Amino acid sequence: MFGGLWLTLFAQVSGEWSVVPQYSYGWAVPLLAGWAAWNRWLARPAPGKGRSTGVSLLLATGLLLLFGLTRLVQEGNRDWRLVSWLLGGEVAGLSALALAWAGGWPWLRHFAFVLLFPLVAVPWPSALEDPLVHGLMQFVARSAAGILQELGIQAVAQGNIIVLAAGPVGVDEACSGIQASVMVSLFLGEMFGFLRMERLKLFLFSVVWAFFCNIGRTFFLCYMAYRQGLAAVPQWHDTAGYSLMAVCYGGIFGLAIWWDRQGVMESVGTPPASTVARRLPGGVLVAGLVWLAAVAVATEWWYRRGEARAAAQRGWMVRFPDEAAYKAKEYSERERTLLRYNESYGREWKDAAGHGWVFNFFRWDTGNAGADNAKYHRPTVCLADVGYLLQRSEPLHEVVVNGVRLPVRQYRFTAGLTSLDSFYCLWDELSRPGYTDPTASWDPANWSARARFQNVLAGRRGGGIQLVNAAVFDAESPAVAAREFEQMLTRVIVPR
Same structural domain for residues 244 and 320? Predict the structure, then answer.
């Protein structure tokens, strides 16, 4: 039963392990947690007095019921990280109740690390992570630019971009190693059996060391761009990334080995000759396992039923009439891995007035949790990361093209003397609240709790999304850009 609980948690958050680079370390956490649990089990103390039967059963029943409700909500909102943390707390809480029942306080204290360590694989809430990570990345860019300037190399930091004489270099995923380094430091502290203060010191060192390693990686890529041109950046990108990982983890491991030789370990006793733990009631375990299976089946049934009954708005796609007049836009392997779309279509061209255009279309089928990326990779985030400043945002409005109602947001950005008008349209096959409301001041990247619960009640989960994202450089005005964009849509939106 407890294997089912933990596997359910890992399965629900593993989607972000594949999509978000800074959480790719999550794939190693279940194995490392299993190793830690086995070693703690071998060194378990004598069991203490178990907890009250009635109270334990009441708490376990409540947590199992809450687990079922949480799973129902999470299935319709897999990007809602607060719900993922609630699920993690329920799984850890049920496991803690079992330990308290079997071995009392001595076991609960002994296995506390095993209960909490797997939670490092649960992505941080966006409200905490976004400002922290973006702020750190911009600080990395400024720090690397400062080092370059000290060496006499012209460099200016603009957001997450360092502008060199050769061109701009992106500070890509500059802080992605910090969270992984925290995980490594926690595990090494457990593996070597360090005292609490040494564990805290190793944790703090991992954060600072990973940060400086990221500055070094960014400086190296910019220096290679200065010496060999911008074409050298993709050539050295992976090498710099793997080298950063080796240096970062090697430094943490080296410090751990040094402390190990200093003998700053906790004293771990051997199991008592006679260990008679209080057995968990077999009927309760069987009932819990049946409940987990029922939750899985009911959740899948609820959403399949809701999606089958939803008024799906299928019927359009994007194709340019004269393909030869537009340059096809190729997406890199990294972009495909991050976005996980089912269909893409991109074009680049210059109009008669000489203005440069970029057009992107992506589609995520119903049930594809990768559609969450349509909300994360939006102009107000991505363009700000590369140094563009938002000047104005137009209200959400509908553009009706060939019978299709498209909700469009327009943003105007500037970077130096360059202006950019960006158009962002999310179209939903399942008519989720907010997507098609032209009067709502609703940001698809910041769902309200009300809209999320409406999706749950209607049985609508991720996917079924189409995204149009277009941009024009140096248009005469936002109004002119909007008019040309809408005229373009009448030519490229065709029936599916």
Answer: no
List pLDDT tens digits, range 453-473: 877 888 877 777 889 999 999
Residues with Cβ within 8 Å of residue 295, at least 6 apart in sequence? 67, 68, 71, 72
| CB proximity list for 296: less than 8 A, separation 6 or greater | 8, 71
CB-CB contact of 473 with 420 (8 Å): yes
Query: Cα separation of 360 and 451, whole Å?
Result: 27
pLDDT tens digit string along 435-455?
A: 555 444 444 444 667 777 877
**C-alpha–C-alpha distance, residues 433 and 373, integer Å:** 18
Q: How many other CB atoms are found less than 10 A from the CB of residue 492? A: 20
Tell me if 190 is assigned to some domain. Answer: yes
For residue 144, tell me if it sits in a domain. Answer: no
Domain tally, the chain: 2
Output the six-digit token pair for 417. 């003397």
In terms of domains, do 259 and 332 share one?
Answer: no
Residues 325 and 245 both lie in one domain: no
Distance between first and last Cα of the chain: 46
Residues 6+ apart with CB under 8 A from 278: 47, 50, 101, 102, 103
State the Cα–Cα distance between residues 121 and 25, nearest whole angstrom: 8
Same domain assignment for residues 350 and 326:
yes
Check whether residue 291 and residue 327 sit in a common domain: no
